[in-house]
Amino acid sequence: MNTVRLTMAQALVRFLENQYLEVDGKEHRFVRGLFIIPGHGNVVGLGQALSQEAKHLEIYQGKNEQGMAQAAVAFAAQTKRKQMMVATSSVGPGAANMVTACGTATANNLPLLVLPGDVYACRQPDPVLQQVEQIHNLSLSTNDAFKAVCRYWDRIVRPEQLMSAMISAFRVLTDPANTGAVCIAMPQDVEGEAYDYPESFFKKRVWRLERRPATEAALRDAAEVIRSAKRPLLICGGGVRYSEAHEEFRAFAEAFGIPFGETQSGKSAVVWDHPLNLGGIGVTGCSAANEIAKKADVVIGVGTRYTDFTTASKWLFSDKCKFVNINVSEFQALKMDAVPVVADAKDTLPRLAKLLKDYKAPYKEEIAKAKKAWEKELDRLDNFAYASTKKWVPLVNDSNKESVHRFAKDLNAQLTQTAALGAINAMMAPAGSLPGDMQRMWRARAADTYNMEYGYSTMGYEIAGALGVKLAIGDKREVYAFAGDGSFNMLHSELITACQEHKKINVCLFDNASFGCINNLQVGHGNKVLCTELRYRNKDGLFGDFMNIDYAKVAEAYGCKSYTVRTMEELRAAFADSRKIKDTPVLFDIKVLPKTMTDGYGAWWRVGDTEVSERPENVAAYEDHLAHVKTARKY
Fold first, then answer.
1. Superfamily of domain 216-369
2. How would you classify the pairing of strands 58-61 and 112-118?
3. Above 60 in pLDDT, residue 588?
4. Which of 109, 281, 312, 542 has the fewest C-beta atoms under 10 angstroms from its C-beta?
5. 30 neighbors 215 (Cβ within 8 angstroms)
6. At what angle are helices 366-382 and 287-294 packed, to 10 degrees?
7. What is the three-state SS of 64-109?
8. What does the alpha-carbon distance between residue 240 and residue 246 come to, in Å, rounded to a whole number?
9. Helix 65-78 / helix 461-473 crossing angle, nearest 10 deg
10. Strand order in the sheet with 26-29
11. 383-593: CATH topology
């Protein structure tokens, strides 16, 4: 056997360089590149290895460990899991920053490889800088925290362990049913230790994404249930997009006249104005999808995890409703007590269609009527304007009605969030994130133009995600990110990376000086406002004037082109001017009134209301909670 003597880190990089993925007969490099923040846990060992061994890997300098890993997650989503990026950090706090991003990747079934530095395997210098010593178990380090959010975890304490570890890692990363985050912890000393590796370990290795076929028995069971349906409903989940079953899903719906609702991940698999597309479903869904869902007797879920936002905490569907689930994951396929079809959507839908033959969903005018009503509501939201009068009623009810007028005065703003979003939607077709309003109001006019992270609901994903999407699609198309001021303040570090790399991402920052959706949740369930508005402290606490932060200047200081927007005229002018920009990130600082986001539309969300309280509003909310729990499905 021919061998080559390399350090563990050198062998790791050489291995990454030679991994390929084959999908439907086409193969390409699986690992596109690597984000790195060098530190004492990776700058010497892995850093040297990258300088020596990286030939094709694109190497990017991250600014925050979570941010760069979130960019890698978005990259994998936009490439439909055909390619992935790696993120590497130092030990301790640098590594811990990536834990959130791993949760994002695993919750959304997206491949992410993280390579955190680790404490010394030999333990001779212990305790080293950034080491947490657990006196009951000296083998523990910060990197053990990754175990809860990763599909596969390993620590390389001897250089020869790398071989079995990386085979297991890529087994997971290339498995559509079980992919997610993978953590390979690298002790600092082991990174530089050498071993005589077999040359065969570094040969071109082609991983094949197999389309798992459905069994004939499973297809017959599914067809039998669907044939019995009087009011069937399809759910278009992220699995439709990742399996590239866009056309198969659309053809199936059309062949049998079955309407469909979209999850956040499934949105833009089919264009918004398709006659059978009811729009977003569930808590952040629209009236059309939720109205049809409540009366559905058979739901056909394709590539969905049935999160509480999709099912409205299992309250949206009746106990009598039956489910058929098409999913590559057996775990997901068995949810909602469904008839499971554990298989790839692209392969399954045409085969299932053959068994249904002449079946037709017996809908009459219900679908068109529901869509027409929602389109009328969309028009109202697009044109919702602010009136500086005490009689003006915001879209979201709030016991503290003075807050809207106070905000308008403090920030000299008059734009409503729904009108701003509607206007932006009319001006382009972006990919980005702003959860509730986006799922309801965004009208996707082309396939795969919507990249939303809502599986882990990670604040701070938006700007990092936009960078990841831009790296995935290149410079031929514009990328727009939608973020609230709360999320922007949490994490926008990769905006600097976008400047550094001359990547034009367009950041639409909706500044309502608050954690808006959480404020709605807070007061909507009977609580007083507490730490959800961005105000100066006065004698009563954080209830002074709203803070008027100039985010445009913040972005300008980084090197972005920025605009401050307070009116619809300024918004349109800014977007027109921004089209002249080529290689520079753009930030629109859009001041939007609180309580002017969408709300309601026939869903419920279980959030743990308070059973005992001095406030009658809390008691009323708990009574409402009990009423919904009583009618919700049990499993």
1. TPP-binding domain (3.40.50.1220)
2. unpaired
3. yes
4. 542
5. no
6. 150
7. CHHHHHHHHHHHHHHCCCCCEEEEEECCCHHHHCCHHHHHHHHHCC
8. 6
9. 50
10. 26-29, 19-23, 205-208
11. Rossmann fold (3.40.50)
- Check: CB of residue 317 under 8 Å from CB of residue 296: yes
The tens digit of pLDDT for each residue in 16-58 reads 999 999 999 999 999 999 999 999 999 999 999 999 999 999 9
Find the radius of gyration of the CA atoms of the chain. Answer: 26
pLDDT of 208 over the 50 cut = yes
pLDDT score for 400: 63
Q: How is residue 157 written in tokens?
A: 């304490």
CA 114 to chain centre: 18
On whether the CB atoms of residues 520 and 396 are closer than 8 A, the answer is yes
Range scoring the smallest mean pLDDT among 44-53, 345-354, 473-482, 552-561: 473-482
CA 94, CA 493: separation in Å to the nearest integer?
Answer: 14
Mean pLDDT, to the nearest integer, of 65-77?
97
Give the separation between CA 296 and CA 325, rounded to whole angstroms: 15
Ranges of beta strands (E only) in 343-444 are 415-416
Q: Which residues contact 427 (CB under 8 A, 6 or more apart)?
A: 572, 575
Q: Check: CB of residue 466 under 8 Å from CB of residue 74.
A: yes
- pLDDT > 70? residue 454: yes
Residue tagged 């503290």 (tokens): 400
Please report which residue ranges of 133-237 form alpha helices under DSSP H: 161-173, 188-191, 216-227
Residue 340: strand pairing partners? 325
Q: Nearest 5°: phi and psi at 489?
A: -65, -30
* Cβ atoms of 437 and 587 closer than 8 Å: no
On the question of a common fold for 3-208 and 216-369, the answer reads yes
Query: DSSP character for 195?
Result: E
Region 204-211: mean pLDDT is 95
Q: How confident is the model at residue 443 (pLDDT cuts 50, 70, 90)?
A: confident
pLDDT tens per residue, range 325-358: 999 999 999 999 999 999 999 999 999 999 998 9
Q: Give the helix/strand (H/E) hosting 58.
A: strand 58-61
The CATH architecture assigned to 3-208 reads 3-Layer(aba) Sandwich (3.40)
**pLDDT confidence of 240, banded at 50, 70, 90?**
very high
Asked if 35 and 68 touch (Cβ cutoff 8 Å), the reply is yes
Asked whether the beta carbons of 440 and 377 are under 8 A apart, the reply is no
Domain boundaries, given as residue ranges, for the chain: 3-208, 216-369, 383-593
Encoded tokens for 532: 């959800």
Token pair of 3, please? 């061998």
Name the average pLDDT for the chain. 94
**Which residues lie closer than 8 Å to 114 by C-beta, 6 or more apart?**
69, 86, 87, 88, 89, 98, 101, 102, 146, 181, 182, 183, 184
Give percent of the chain above pLDDT 70: 98
